[in-house]
Amino acid sequence: MENILSLKNIKKNYGEIAALKGVSLDIERGSFLGILGPNGAGKTTLMNIIIGLIAPDEGEILLENSPVIHRSNDVIQKFGYVPQEIALYEELSAIKNLEIFGGLYGLKGKALRSRISEVLELVGLYERKKDAVKTFSGGMKRRFNIACSILHSPEIILCDEPTVGIDPQSRNAIFDMLQRMHKAEGKTIIYTTHYMEEAERLCDKLEIIDNGKIIAEGTLAELINLLAKKQSIKILKESRAISVKKELSSLGTLNELEFHFELIPGTEYSKLHQLFPKLESLGISEDNIEISRATLEDVFLNLTGRRLRD
Amino acid sequence: MNTVLMLFKKDTYRFLSDKPALLLTFILPAVLILIFGEIFSGNGGQQSRIPIIFVNESSSPAAKIIEEKLDSSKALKPVKSIKTSDKNKTIFFNEKTAKDYVEKGKFSTAVILPKNFISDSSAALNIKVYYDPKDEIEYSLIMGNIQKIIYSTIPSVFPALLQNKWQKEIGPAQAKKFKTSMAKTVNYFFGVPADSIEKYMDLSYISQSHSLNADSAASNFFSELLNFQSTQVVGKEISNPGATRMVGGWAIMFLLFSIVSASISLFEEKQQGTLKRLLTMPVSRNQIIWSKYLYTTVLGVIQLAVMFIFAWAVFNVDIFSNFINLFLMIIASTLAAVSFGMLITSFTKSLSQANGIATILILIMSAIGGSWFPVFLLPEWMQTISKTTITYWSVDGFLQVLWRHSDLSGILINLVVLLGIAGAVNAVALYRFKKTDILT
Ligand SMILES: Nc1ncnc2c1ncn2[C@@H]1O[C@H](COP(=O)(O)OP(=O)(O)OP(=O)(O)O)[C@@H](O)[C@H]1O
Ligand SMILES: [Mg+2]
After folding, report:
1. Residue B58 DSSP class
2. Counting Cβ atoms within 10 Å, is residue A175 exposed (0-12), middle (13-18) or buried (19+)?
3. Which of residues 222-281 of B touch A (CB under 8 A)?
4. According to CATH, what is the number of the domain A3-225?
5. pLDDT at B45 over 50
6. Is A208 on the interface with B (CB under 8 A)?
7. Could you list which residues have their CB under 5 Å from ion ligand 2?
8. Are B129 and B189 in contact (CB under 8 A)?
9. Which ligand is in closest contact with the Cα of B440?
10. Of B315, B369, B306, nearest in space to B37 by CA
């Protein structure tokens, strides 16, 4: 697949703070790219640079293989930007907001009206279209914030943490909505988040960003494969386990935690059918064993020595 | 241009959905114009008379005339007796009790025409006034009115005073001789009976008789000597002078307030993130700024128009006979106010900062520029500063148009200065917008 967007060595400083320290990435047409990183990693800065709200100090952005001209109408129409903060005229009704934003994108008349109905259905707010946005719940505002950004049917949708601070229901609604646009309409979606569950669930490809740098990229499987341990075994710290602690540590790396041991099996025991008989023979009951698959959290921890969320 | 209009529409929707802004722009000014219009409108007839104590101890007919004039005065209300609070007794004021009541602060002024109001021994009128100068405006109002009444009475009293004077100078015997020969001379030349002439020239006749009314020969003669002919040359046909003078001042103050709050709504949009959203749309920074200009200008013109129409509807302020010039003043004032709003926006960093600075500046401009009271009441050096304010040139222009019914030449300087201010201030504001990029 061709790249719809390429960033080449983007750098941005805010005075002393280096927000981006040379970010390069390629985004395939029709892909769902996740940018995962903790607070202050530089996600919003990166989005603002892609959309042209701020200029990078260094680096280049290619849109369909040619340098992007940000203020040109063509380019503006291609992008839909869902800002991290809700940006709506809250005192006006949903429909007035959409009329204004649609009008500014050059939509009018029947086309505008039918497009308004479409996006209102999509975000599940058709029934509330006449209400002032300020009367919406937090989750509804978030959904409507997206609606206003996709009204003009952009090809590339940038979502900057669109699910911050909302209930699971609204969050699922947003996921469904984005996945529909991705799968059914073939939109390219760039999605930043600091929730690894979201990134795991939604994205084809992931960029892990920390401190203004991309520290890893790939599909979920590729990233997990970066880990020495793809899984860990939790063993409850009851008297039997404690008494065979020495034997357990010979099976791999053993970490002693408050309530259980965490065992990362060594290479000769990397398959569970090799490990389980061993544990059984040490007299550890199956009930006291829990297997956990490695997650992006582990990947992040492994790469940075820190957790994604504090 | 379409984009600017779209943004203008957006601002209009927002304004219309903003109840407090609507209230501040249209209702509050209307209410205040109503209140102050009532206070200053002389035509209402309900203007209250200022009470003063009046004691007339003189038996002279001239004193009687003054008393009658005071009784029918529109400005003063002579109080001659009062019910005491403890017993239900009515006391009539005399000099002593009058002085007492002024001292106690019950009345601000007492006017006493004493027994020797017209003294036999001098040509002067004796009047006593006790006053408490706690309220200088009231005091000068009272004194002005009393003097007016006395001056208009003097022609009738003057002959008696003059006779007093010369009879005293030459002595009664000589005076008698003079009158007799004078009467004879008149009789000789004009055939009028000498005794009636002599009687007419008699002091007691003049000061006691009823010839003190305006058509007596003597009083006619003296009223020609002392002829106050004051003619109001400006504002004569103004249907409501008080409201007419006031409406421009209040209108311009509220114009400044609402325009500033409309232009600093840029900060609101910045705060709520919509400004950023607009900038990811096919909307340029310049279009956002120009749409603000368009919006504030239209809002200002409508607001001023509504206020003047209100003043016309309620106080009968004549806004139509000089409509074109009034409209020119409205446009020029609005443009100047818009530039002020933009200047504030371009030099501040947040809504609250802009609001604070704007409020202080508007209040100062209103105070020294003539929104609240006429500029001539200010010390001279301050009047010079007045001329640097938008308020001064607007208020003055509106007065020219509504009060003097000036033609274009009368307000040309106001228009030129206001548009000059608008041009210069806008240049600074636009430069700041370019330089500091407040939009992001
Ligand atoms: N306008 C600004 N002025 C100064 N520093 C800034 C500015 N915007 C961002 N930064 C700094 O740049 C760095 C990256 O910020 P950015 O907002 O891009 O992070 P983020 O990944 O979006 O964080 P979050 O998850 O909290 O939204 C941070 O250290 C931040 O403090
Ligand atoms: Mg962010």
Report:
1. -
2. middle
3. 272-274, 276-281
4. 3.40.50.300
5. no
6. no
7. A 43-44, 84
8. no
9. 1
10. B315
| Cα gap A309→A192, rounded to integer Å | 15
Where in chain A is CATH 3.40.50.300?
Answer: 3-225
Q: B273 to chain A nearest CA, in Å?
A: 5
User: Side chain identity at B22, as an amino acid letter?
Assistant: L
Given CB atoms, is A228 within the 8 Å cutoff of chain B?
Answer: no
- Ranked by mean pLDDT, the top range of A56-60, B161-165, B213-217, B222-226 is A56-60
The rounded distance, in Å, linking the Cα atoms of B362 and A34 is: 52
Average pLDDT, integer, range A29-48 = 94
**Half-sphere exposure (Cβ direction) of A158: Cα atoms closer than 13 Å:** 24
Q: Contact, B246 vs A23, CB < 8 A? A: no
Residue B47: per-residue pLDDT: 53
Summary mean pLDDT of chain B: 82
List residues bridging with A79 in a β-sheet.
A156
What is the pLDDT confidence band of residue B440, given thresholds at 50, 70 and 90? low
In chain B, what are the domain boundaries?
Answer: 50-232, 241-436
CATH architecture designation of domain A231-293: 2-Layer Sandwich (3.30)
Q: What is the pLDDT of residues A193-243, one digit of tens each?
A: 988 888 888 998 999 999 999 999 998 888 888 776 667 788 888 888 888
Question: Which part of chain A is CATH 3.30.70?
Answer: 231-293
Query: How is residue B144 written in tokens?
Result: 């002005």
Mutate to test the pocket of ligand 1, among A11, A14, A39, A161 (most ligand atoms within 8 A of CB): A14
